[in-house]
Design a protein that fits this description.
single chain; elongated
Length: 108
Amino acid sequence: MKETDWTPLLIRMSQGDEDAFHTVYESTRDHAYRLIRYLAPSQQDAADIVSEVYVELFRSLHSYDPGKNFAAWFNGLIVRQVRNWKRKALRTYQTVHQNKKTRQKLPG
């Protein structure tokens, strides 16, 4: 990911400028995808996590400090989204496993 002054693009994005979003997306998606593939528990989930990262990017624009490094902030978003994905996967597994146990105990 190139070191760029992202502030003008992020401001435009927060105002609903789709071209600004596409510019940010095109400039960052390869980096995001590589990092997610490295961190994700399942490689098949990478594309879904990438989508969630960009939804969260848009939601979190208000928290970006232009005085800080964008790449570090963006990497933090990625790490949090991967962590959230792992947490959801664990909860789903636990729920399914618990339901299996419950069904096995039922008389039937």
